[in-house]
Protein backbone atom coordinates (compact mmCIF):
# COMPACT_ATOMS: atom_id res chain seq x y z
CA UNK A 1 0.00 0.00 0.00
CA UNK A 2 2.94 2.30 0.63
CA UNK A 3 6.23 2.45 -1.23
CA UNK A 4 9.48 4.35 -1.09
CA UNK A 5 9.95 7.34 -3.33
CA UNK A 6 13.42 6.30 -4.41
CA UNK A 7 14.49 9.78 -5.43
CA UNK A 8 14.46 10.75 -1.78
CA UNK A 9 16.36 7.80 -0.39
CA UNK A 10 19.90 8.98 -1.02
CA UNK A 11 22.73 7.27 -2.90
CA UNK A 12 22.34 3.51 -2.53
CA UNK A 13 26.05 2.98 -1.88
CA UNK A 14 25.66 5.10 1.26
CA UNK A 15 22.73 3.05 2.57
CA UNK A 16 22.76 -0.46 3.98
CA UNK A 17 19.74 -2.28 2.56
CA UNK A 18 18.58 -5.60 3.99
CA UNK A 19 15.51 -7.60 2.95
CA UNK A 20 13.76 -10.90 3.45
CA UNK A 21 10.41 -12.64 3.77
CA UNK A 22 8.00 -12.82 6.69
CA UNK A 23 4.26 -13.12 7.45
CA UNK A 24 3.48 -14.09 3.88
CA UNK A 25 5.05 -10.90 2.54
CA UNK A 26 8.45 -9.16 2.49
CA UNK A 27 10.44 -7.01 4.88
CA UNK A 28 13.14 -4.43 4.28
CA UNK A 29 15.43 -2.31 6.42
CA UNK A 30 17.50 0.68 5.32
CA UNK A 31 20.29 2.16 7.41
CA UNK A 32 22.06 5.21 5.93
CA UNK A 33 25.81 5.63 6.43
CA UNK A 34 26.28 2.44 8.48
CA UNK A 35 29.26 2.47 10.82
CA UNK A 36 32.30 0.60 9.58
CA UNK A 37 32.19 -1.76 12.55
CA UNK A 38 28.51 -2.67 12.09
CA UNK A 39 28.27 -6.45 11.68
CA UNK A 40 25.82 -6.55 8.79
CA UNK A 41 25.49 -10.34 8.73
CA UNK A 42 24.69 -10.39 12.46
CA UNK A 43 22.17 -7.57 12.01
CA UNK A 44 20.39 -9.57 9.30
CA UNK A 45 20.31 -12.64 11.55
CA UNK A 46 18.94 -10.65 14.47
CA UNK A 47 16.19 -9.06 12.37
CA UNK A 48 15.22 -12.47 10.98
CA UNK A 49 15.14 -13.93 14.49
CA UNK A 50 12.86 -11.15 15.78
CA UNK A 51 10.42 -11.66 12.91
CA UNK A 52 10.47 -15.43 13.35
CA UNK A 53 9.61 -14.90 17.00
CA UNK A 54 6.69 -12.60 16.14
CA UNK A 55 5.44 -15.06 13.53
CA UNK A 56 5.80 -17.95 15.97
CA UNK A 57 3.52 -16.16 18.39
CA UNK A 58 0.93 -14.49 16.14
CA UNK A 59 0.63 -16.44 12.89
CA UNK A 60 -2.65 -18.10 11.93
CA UNK A 61 -0.82 -19.96 9.15
CA UNK A 62 1.54 -21.84 11.50
CA UNK A 63 -0.34 -24.55 13.45
CA UNK A 64 2.32 -24.47 16.17
CA UNK A 65 2.15 -20.73 16.82
CA UNK A 66 0.87 -19.46 20.17
CA UNK A 67 -2.16 -17.89 18.52
CA UNK A 68 -3.01 -21.02 16.53
CA UNK A 69 -2.81 -23.14 19.67
CA UNK A 70 -5.12 -20.72 21.46
CA UNK A 71 -7.54 -20.77 18.53
CA UNK A 72 -7.71 -24.58 18.48
CA UNK A 73 -7.95 -24.96 22.26
CA UNK A 74 -11.43 -26.03 23.36
CA UNK A 75 -11.13 -24.59 26.86
CA UNK A 76 -12.73 -21.38 28.07
CA UNK A 77 -10.24 -21.18 30.95
CA UNK A 78 -7.26 -18.82 30.95
CA UNK A 79 -4.75 -19.92 28.31
CA UNK A 80 -1.10 -19.00 29.12
CA UNK A 81 0.64 -16.96 26.40
CA UNK A 82 3.69 -14.74 26.10
CA UNK A 83 3.55 -11.22 27.48
CA UNK A 84 4.07 -9.94 23.94
CA UNK A 85 0.97 -11.68 22.59
CA UNK A 86 -1.12 -10.61 25.57
CA UNK A 87 -0.11 -6.97 25.17
CA UNK A 88 -0.89 -6.93 21.46
CA UNK A 89 -4.32 -8.50 21.97
CA UNK A 90 -5.00 -5.98 24.75
CA UNK A 91 -4.07 -3.16 22.36
CA UNK A 92 -6.39 -4.61 19.72
CA UNK A 93 -9.27 -4.84 22.19
CA UNK A 94 -8.73 -1.21 23.20
CA UNK A 95 -9.11 -0.19 19.53
CA UNK A 96 -12.20 -2.41 19.27
CA UNK A 97 -13.78 -0.60 22.19
CA UNK A 98 -12.88 2.83 20.79
CA UNK A 99 -14.40 1.97 17.39
CA UNK A 100 -17.55 0.28 18.62
CA UNK A 101 -16.35 -3.04 17.25
CA UNK A 102 -15.39 -1.86 13.76
CA UNK A 103 -11.97 -3.31 14.56
CA UNK A 104 -12.43 -6.90 15.72
CA UNK A 105 -9.65 -9.48 15.87
CA UNK A 106 -12.24 -12.25 16.32
CA UNK A 107 -13.49 -11.65 12.77
CA UNK A 108 -11.31 -14.55 11.59
CA UNK A 109 -14.19 -16.98 10.82
CA UNK A 110 -15.63 -14.43 8.40
CA UNK A 111 -12.22 -13.67 6.88
CA UNK A 112 -11.74 -17.40 6.28
CA UNK A 113 -15.27 -17.86 4.97
CA UNK A 114 -14.73 -15.17 2.36
CA UNK A 115 -11.43 -16.80 1.34
CA UNK A 116 -8.96 -14.24 2.70
CA UNK A 117 -7.42 -16.39 5.43
CA UNK A 118 -5.22 -19.51 5.44
CA UNK A 119 -7.85 -21.45 3.51
CA UNK A 120 -8.14 -21.54 -0.28
CA UNK A 121 -9.71 -18.47 -1.92
CA UNK A 122 -13.21 -19.49 -3.15
CA UNK A 123 -13.86 -16.58 -5.54
CA UNK A 124 -17.53 -16.86 -4.73
CA UNK A 125 -20.05 -15.29 -2.37
CA UNK A 126 -20.76 -17.48 0.67
CA UNK A 127 -24.39 -18.44 1.37
CA UNK A 128 -26.12 -16.19 3.89
CA UNK A 129 -26.61 -19.16 6.23
CA UNK A 130 -22.83 -19.65 6.36
CA UNK A 131 -22.29 -15.93 6.98
CA UNK A 132 -24.78 -16.01 9.85
CA UNK A 133 -23.10 -19.07 11.36
CA UNK A 134 -19.68 -17.41 11.18
CA UNK A 135 -20.99 -14.16 12.66
CA UNK A 136 -22.29 -16.11 15.66
CA UNK A 137 -18.65 -16.92 16.49
CA UNK A 138 -17.49 -13.29 16.19
CA UNK A 139 -17.36 -10.72 18.97
CA UNK A 140 -14.41 -8.90 20.49
CA UNK A 141 -16.21 -8.67 23.85
CA UNK A 142 -15.91 -12.48 24.10
CA UNK A 143 -12.10 -12.25 24.20
CA UNK A 144 -10.26 -11.33 27.41
CA UNK A 145 -6.66 -10.65 28.44
CA UNK A 146 -4.74 -10.96 31.69
CA UNK A 147 -1.38 -9.29 32.19
CA UNK A 148 -0.06 -11.22 35.21
CA UNK A 149 0.56 -13.98 34.49
CA UNK A 150 -0.05 -13.27 30.78
CA UNK A 151 -2.98 -15.20 29.39
CA UNK A 152 -5.95 -15.05 27.04
CA UNK A 153 -9.46 -16.34 27.60
CA UNK A 154 -12.46 -16.81 25.31
CA UNK A 155 -16.12 -17.08 26.27
CA UNK A 156 -16.86 -19.76 23.68
CA UNK A 157 -14.49 -22.55 22.63
CA UNK A 158 -14.76 -21.85 18.89
CA UNK A 159 -13.73 -18.18 19.08
CA UNK A 160 -11.00 -17.55 16.51
CA UNK A 161 -8.51 -14.66 16.71
CA UNK A 162 -6.87 -13.17 13.62
CA UNK A 163 -4.20 -10.50 14.23
CA UNK A 164 -3.38 -9.87 10.57
CA UNK A 165 -4.62 -6.27 10.81
CA UNK A 166 -2.08 -5.38 13.50
CA UNK A 167 0.69 -8.01 13.47
CA UNK A 168 2.71 -6.61 10.55
CA UNK A 169 2.75 -3.17 12.14
CA UNK A 170 3.80 -4.76 15.41
CA UNK A 171 6.59 -6.58 13.59
CA UNK A 172 7.82 -3.25 12.26
CA UNK A 173 7.87 -1.88 15.81
CA UNK A 174 9.81 -4.90 17.08
CA UNK A 175 12.47 -4.49 14.38
CA UNK A 176 12.68 -0.75 15.10
CA UNK A 177 13.25 -1.51 18.78
CA UNK A 178 16.02 -3.95 17.81
CA UNK A 179 17.76 -1.30 15.69
CA UNK A 180 17.52 1.30 18.42
CA UNK A 181 18.90 -1.20 20.90
CA UNK A 182 21.96 -1.42 18.68
CA UNK A 183 22.38 2.36 18.81
CA UNK A 184 21.06 3.06 15.30
CA UNK A 185 19.31 6.43 15.16
CA UNK A 186 18.62 6.64 11.40
CA UNK A 187 16.65 3.84 9.75
CA UNK A 188 13.56 2.86 7.78
CA UNK A 189 11.77 -0.42 8.51
CA UNK A 190 9.06 -1.84 6.24
CA UNK A 191 6.92 -5.00 6.31
CA UNK A 192 4.36 -5.50 3.57
CA UNK A 193 4.06 -1.75 3.02
CA UNK A 194 3.76 -0.78 6.71
CA UNK A 195 6.65 1.50 7.70
CA UNK A 196 8.44 3.19 10.55
CA UNK A 197 11.25 5.69 10.07
CA UNK A 198 13.59 7.42 12.44
CA UNK A 199 16.08 10.19 11.81
CA UNK A 200 17.02 10.95 8.21
CA UNK A 201 18.07 9.23 5.00
CA UNK A 202 21.54 9.25 3.42
CA UNK A 203 20.99 12.79 2.14
CA UNK A 204 20.20 14.07 5.61
CA UNK A 205 16.50 14.53 4.73
CA UNK A 206 13.32 12.96 6.12
CA UNK A 207 12.32 9.62 4.65
CA UNK A 208 9.99 10.41 1.74
CA UNK A 209 7.18 7.91 1.30
CA UNK A 210 4.58 7.83 -1.45
CA UNK A 211 1.00 6.78 -0.85
CA UNK A 212 -0.29 4.86 -3.86
CA UNK A 213 -3.30 5.64 -5.96
CA UNK A 214 -5.87 2.91 -5.20
CA UNK A 215 -5.60 1.33 -8.65
CA UNK A 216 -5.31 -2.48 -8.79
CA UNK A 217 -3.65 -2.52 -12.22
CA UNK A 218 -0.76 -0.11 -11.71
CA UNK A 219 1.43 1.65 -9.16
CA UNK A 220 1.39 5.44 -9.10
CA UNK A 221 2.03 7.99 -6.36
CA UNK A 222 -0.94 9.90 -5.02
CA UNK A 223 0.64 11.83 -2.13
CA UNK A 224 4.16 12.06 -0.72
CA UNK A 225 4.82 12.41 2.99
CA UNK A 226 7.98 13.10 4.95
CA UNK A 227 8.37 10.51 7.68
CA UNK A 228 10.58 11.41 10.67
CA UNK A 229 10.34 9.48 13.95
CA UNK A 230 6.93 8.20 12.91
CA UNK A 231 5.17 5.17 11.48
CA UNK A 232 2.67 4.89 8.66
CA UNK A 233 0.20 2.25 7.50
CA UNK A 234 -2.44 2.06 4.79
CA UNK A 235 -5.49 -0.18 4.43
CA UNK A 236 -7.28 -0.40 1.09
CA UNK A 237 -9.51 -2.48 -1.12
CA UNK A 238 -7.37 -2.57 -4.28
CA UNK A 239 -4.74 -5.28 -3.69
CA UNK A 240 -6.54 -8.18 -1.97
CA UNK A 241 -9.99 -8.74 -3.44
CA UNK A 242 -11.98 -10.82 -5.88
CA UNK A 243 -14.77 -9.97 -8.29
CA UNK A 244 -18.07 -11.71 -9.04
CA UNK A 245 -20.28 -10.39 -11.85
CA UNK A 246 -18.24 -7.18 -12.01
CA UNK A 247 -18.59 -6.40 -8.28
CA UNK A 248 -15.48 -6.14 -6.12
CA UNK A 249 -15.32 -7.92 -2.75
CA UNK A 250 -12.53 -6.59 -0.53
CA UNK A 251 -10.61 -8.50 2.15
CA UNK A 252 -11.74 -5.90 4.72
CA UNK A 253 -14.73 -7.41 6.50
CA UNK A 254 -17.29 -5.36 8.40
CA UNK A 255 -18.02 -7.34 11.59
CA UNK A 256 -21.47 -5.73 11.80
CA UNK A 257 -22.62 -7.28 8.51
CA UNK A 258 -20.27 -10.22 8.07
CA UNK A 259 -19.51 -8.98 4.57
CA UNK A 260 -16.78 -6.95 2.88
CA UNK A 261 -17.17 -3.19 3.25
CA UNK A 262 -19.38 -1.66 0.55
CA UNK A 263 -18.81 2.10 0.77
CA UNK A 264 -16.68 4.20 -1.62
CA UNK A 265 -13.69 4.57 0.70
CA UNK A 266 -10.81 3.02 -1.26
CA UNK A 267 -7.94 3.51 1.19
CA UNK A 268 -7.04 4.97 4.56
CA UNK A 269 -3.53 6.01 5.60
CA UNK A 270 -2.65 6.64 9.24
CA UNK A 271 0.52 8.25 10.62
CA UNK A 272 1.27 7.45 14.25
CA UNK A 273 4.13 6.99 16.68
CA UNK A 274 3.93 3.19 16.54
CA UNK A 275 3.25 1.13 13.44
CA UNK A 276 1.03 -1.37 15.23
CA UNK A 277 -1.31 1.48 16.19
CA UNK A 278 -1.25 2.90 12.65
CA UNK A 279 -1.99 -0.57 11.25
CA UNK A 280 -4.99 -1.17 13.50
CA UNK A 281 -6.47 2.30 13.06
CA UNK A 282 -6.13 2.21 9.26
CA UNK A 283 -8.25 -0.95 9.18
CA UNK A 284 -10.73 0.45 11.70
CA UNK A 285 -11.34 3.67 9.80
CA UNK A 286 -11.67 1.80 6.49
CA UNK A 287 -14.44 -0.31 8.03
CA UNK A 288 -16.20 2.74 9.46
CA UNK A 289 -16.28 4.52 6.11
CA UNK A 290 -15.67 8.12 5.04
CA UNK A 291 -18.10 9.97 7.32
CA UNK A 292 -17.94 8.00 10.57
CA UNK A 293 -14.24 7.24 10.08
CA UNK A 294 -13.20 10.86 9.56
CA UNK A 295 -15.35 12.05 12.44
CA UNK A 296 -13.66 9.57 14.78
CA UNK A 297 -10.20 10.41 13.43
CA UNK A 298 -10.68 14.09 14.16
CA UNK A 299 -12.22 13.37 17.56
CA UNK A 300 -9.16 11.32 18.58
CA UNK A 301 -6.62 13.58 16.87
CA UNK A 302 -5.46 10.86 14.46
CA UNK A 303 -3.36 11.85 11.44
CA UNK A 304 -5.27 10.25 8.57
CA UNK A 305 -5.74 10.56 4.83
CA UNK A 306 -8.88 9.14 3.18
CA UNK A 307 -9.21 8.33 -0.52
CA UNK A 308 -12.73 7.87 -1.87
CA UNK A 309 -13.77 6.62 -5.29
CA UNK A 310 -16.19 8.83 -7.17
CA UNK A 311 -17.93 8.10 -10.46
CA UNK A 312 -15.39 7.20 -13.18
CA UNK A 313 -14.29 10.22 -15.18
CA UNK A 314 -12.86 9.41 -18.58
CA UNK A 315 -10.22 6.67 -18.46
CA UNK A 316 -9.05 7.47 -14.93
CA UNK A 317 -11.28 7.03 -11.92
CA UNK A 318 -12.00 10.28 -10.10
CA UNK A 319 -10.90 10.36 -6.48
CA UNK A 320 -11.69 12.52 -3.47
CA UNK A 321 -8.83 13.01 -0.99
CA UNK A 322 -9.70 14.11 2.54
CA UNK A 323 -7.25 14.74 5.37
CA UNK A 324 -7.89 14.90 9.09
CA UNK A 325 -6.91 18.05 10.93
CA UNK A 326 -3.73 16.41 12.24
CA UNK A 327 -2.49 14.92 8.97
CA UNK A 328 -0.73 17.85 7.29
CA UNK A 329 1.65 18.45 10.18
CA UNK A 330 2.30 14.75 10.72
CA UNK A 331 3.00 14.22 7.02
CA UNK A 332 5.53 17.04 6.75
CA UNK A 333 3.26 18.98 4.35
CA UNK A 334 4.88 17.26 1.35
CA UNK A 335 2.91 17.17 -1.88
Keywords:
335 residues, eight-stranded antiparallel β-sheet, 30% helix, disordered N terminus
Describe this structure in words.
The protein is α+β, with helices and mostly antiparallel strands and 335 residues long. It is 30% helix and 29% strand. It has helices at residues 40-58, 66-72, 83-98, 108-113, 128-135, 167-181, 275-288, 290-300, 327-330, and strands spanning 2-4, 15-22, 25-32, 79-80, 143-146, 151-154, 187-191, 194-198, 207-212, 221-227, 230-236, 241-244, 247-250, 253-254, 259-260, 265-272, 303-313, 316-323. The strands form five sheets. The protein has an eight-stranded antiparallel beta sheet. A three-stranded antiparallel beta sheet has the order 1-9-10, with no helix packed on it. A three-stranded antiparallel beta sheet has the order 4-6-5, with helices on one face. Helix 1 (40-58) packs antiparallel against helix 6. The two termini are 18 Å apart. Residues 1-12 have low confidence and may be disordered.
Strands ordered across the widest β-sheet: 2-3-7-8-11-16-17-18
Regions with little confidence, pLDDT below 50 for 5+ residues: 1-12
DSSP, total strands:
18
> Largest sheet, if any?
8 strands, antiparallel
What Rg is obtained from the alpha carbons, in whole angstroms? 20 Å
Shape: globular
Question: What count of helical segments does DSSP give?
Answer: 9
Beta-strand content estimate: 25-35%
What is the SS-derived class?
Answer: alpha+beta
- What number is the mean pLDDT? 88
SSE succession: EEEHHEHHHEEHEEEEEEEEEEHHEEH
Can you give the helix content as a percent range? Answer: 25-40%
End-to-end Cα distance:
18 Å
Amino acid sequence: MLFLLLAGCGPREQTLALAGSTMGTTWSVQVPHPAADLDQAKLYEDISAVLEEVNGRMSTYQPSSELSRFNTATTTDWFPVSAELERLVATALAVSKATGGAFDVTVGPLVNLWGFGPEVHPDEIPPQADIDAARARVGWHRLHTRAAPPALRKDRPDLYVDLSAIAKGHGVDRVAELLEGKGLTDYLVEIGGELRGRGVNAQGEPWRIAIERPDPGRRAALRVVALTDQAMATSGDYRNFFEVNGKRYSHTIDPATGRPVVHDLASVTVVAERCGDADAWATSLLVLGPQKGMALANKRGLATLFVERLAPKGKEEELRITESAAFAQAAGEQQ
